C-alpha cells in the first residue's frame, strides 16, 4: 500500500466513529482531507452531521462537498474530532501536530470534543526511542518574535535539549502566516523524551500562542499498515 492509500484507509476507518446526529470536528492536512471527502460522500447519502473545521482550508473543502458547518462559538461541544498527526507516540498517544500550521485551532477543536480520533499512515507511529524527529511546530505572535524565540531556546536548553529553531517560510521566502495571523517556529529537536514537561515550558512563554505537542487529548489512533488498519487506544 502506498502512503496515500494508507492515509485513505485510515480516514475511511474513522467513519466507524461517526453516528447520525453527531457534532464533528474536522482536522487539517492531507489525511484529514481524505476523511472530509469520505464524510462528504456519507452526507450525500443522507448522514446528518454538523461539523466544525480546524482551518480555512478544511472549511472550504467541506463546504464544497455540502457538509453542514458550524463554528465552535455556535457549537462549543463536539462528539468527536477526526484529525491527522505528524507523529504519534505509541501508548500514551502523545501527538506532534502542526505540519500544516493549524495546530492551535486543531487543539482547541480536539479538546472541545468528547473523543479525538487520529488517522495516520504507518510511518507516523513512533516508539519512545524515536519520538520527536519531526520538527515541533510552535505558533507564536509576530510581535516580539525574536524575543519569544530566544525564550523558547532557553526553555528547551533547560530541559537538556538543543536544536535549530526555524521560522517557517512559504515558497518565496516570506514568513508563513497561520489562519490566526501567527508565525510558526519549527523546533528541530531530533528526539523528545519529556513531552509533557516541554509542552508546559513552551506554553508558559509570553508570545507563544500554542505548541504542537498534544498530550492527553487523543483517545484512539487508527494507523493504516499493509496488514490493515490498527486501532490503538490511549494507554494511561
Ligand atoms: C496540520 C496537522 C496535520 O494533521 C499533520 O501535519 C499531518 O498532515 P498530513 O495528514 O498531511 O500528513 O497537524 O496542522
List keywords for this structure.
Alpha-Beta Plaits; 14 strands; 4-stranded mixed sheet; binds ribulose-5-phosphate; single chain; 27% strand; Rossmann fold; alpha/beta; 236 residues
Q: For the largest beta sheet, what order do the strands appear in spatially?
A: 2-1-3-6-13-14
CATH-defined architecture of the largest domain: 3-Layer(aba) Sandwich
The first-level CATH class of the largest domain is given as: Alpha Beta
Low-confidence stretches: none
Distinct small molecules bound, one entry per kind = ribulose-5-phosphate
What count of structural domains? 2
Report the count of strand segments. 14
Helix count, DSSP H or I runs of 4 or more residues: 6
Q: Topology as H/E string?
A: HEHEHEEEHEEEHEEHEEEE
The CATH topology of the largest domain: Rossmann fold
How widely separated are the two ends? 31 Å
Largest sheet: 6 strands, mixed
Topology:
Blueprint: H1 3-13, E1 23-26, H2 30-44, E2 50-53, H3 56-64, E3 78-83, E4 87-89, E5 94-96, H4 103-110, E6 113-121, E7 125-126, E8 136-140, H5 145-158, E9 164-167, E10 183-188, H6 195-203, E11 208-211, E12 213-214, E13 220-225, E14 228-233
Parallel strand pairs: 1-2, 1-3, 3-6, 4-7, 6-13
Antiparallel strand pairs: 4-5, 5-12, 8-10, 8-11, 9-10, 13-14
Helix pairs in contact: 1-2
